[in-house]
Amino acid sequence: MVSSFLYFWVVIQKINSILLVDDDPDDQLLFQEALSDADNSIQYTSASDGIHALEQLNTEGAVLPELIFMDVNMPRMNGLDCLKEIQKSTKLKHIHVIMYSTSCSVEYQKECFANGAVDYIEKPNDFKTLCTRIAGVIRQGILPAVNTIPPAL
Questions:
Q1: What was the pLDDT predicted at 15?
Q2: Number of domain units in the chain
Q3: Residues paired with residue 21 on neighbouring β-strands, in sequence order
Q4: Which residues carry this modification: 4-aspartylphosphate (predicted)?
Q5: Contact at 8 Å (CB) between 99 and 87?
Q6: Does any domain span residue 48?
Q7: 61: nearest Cα among 91, 88, 40, 33
Q8: What does each C-alpha distance from 10 to 13, 106, 145 come to in angstroms?
Q9: Please, are residues 49 and 24 in contact by the beta-carbon 8 Å criterion?
Q10: Domain residues for 84?
Q11: pLDDT for residue 148
Q12: Which pLDDT score, from 0 to 100, does residue 150 have?
């Protein structure tokens, strides 16, 4: 009997830059501090809503982030609408987007995954948990983009 094995390698990319899209300045500051605690070599930028994020991302010559943390509930353009715009853009759709919100509706999470989000993280209530979650994302790195709905949902 002959056995055959399938071997494959997945290259995980280190995260060098993150964009946080969140309308709450306090949440932006806490996120920045937690990110700095996890890895202070990561370049951090922020945007106050979806429209501001798209303006930054579409600026001529802009250095694009490898990862976006996207709040769900924001004025002018919410996170899901911004995610949809990112996925429509050939320039931007390769960027991994993690939805990041206090809202944890399973149906909304499914909609986010169906529209290209790679993860959905509930905003923690304390700084220590925030640090742990961000450090976990940083340790995981970035896998090649595959947008699918996780089987657990």
A1: 80
A2: 1
A3: 47, 70
A4: 71
A5: no
A6: yes
A7: 91
A8: 10, 29, 11
A9: no
A10: 17-140
A11: 43
A12: 46
Beta strand segments in 102-141, E: 119-122
Residue of 46, 50, 42, 113 lying closest to 86 (CA atoms): 50
Helix (H, G, I), strand (E, B) or coil at 82: helix
Which residues of 11-149 form beta strands (DSSP E)? 17-21, 43-47, 67-70, 96-101, 119-122
The token duo for 73 is 């509930």
Residue whose token pair is 């300045």: 25
The one-letter amino acid code at 147 reads: N
76 is a domain residue: yes
Averaged pLDDT in 10-residue chunks for the chain of 153 residues? 52 79 94 91 93 94 90 91 94 92 84 92 89 86 51 48
Please state, in angstroms and rounded to a whole number, the distance separating the CA atoms of residues 30 and 43. 15
Helix (H, G, I), strand (E, B) or coil at 40: coil
Residue 5 exposed, middle or buried by CB count within 10 Å (0-12, 13-18, 19+):
exposed
Q: Is the pTM higher than 0.90?
A: no
User: Distance between terminal CA atoms of the chain?
Assistant: 40
Position 3 in a domain: no
CATH of the domain at 95: 3.40.50.2300
**How far is it, in rounded angstroms, from Cα 96 to Cα 67?**
5
d(CA 101, CA 73): 7
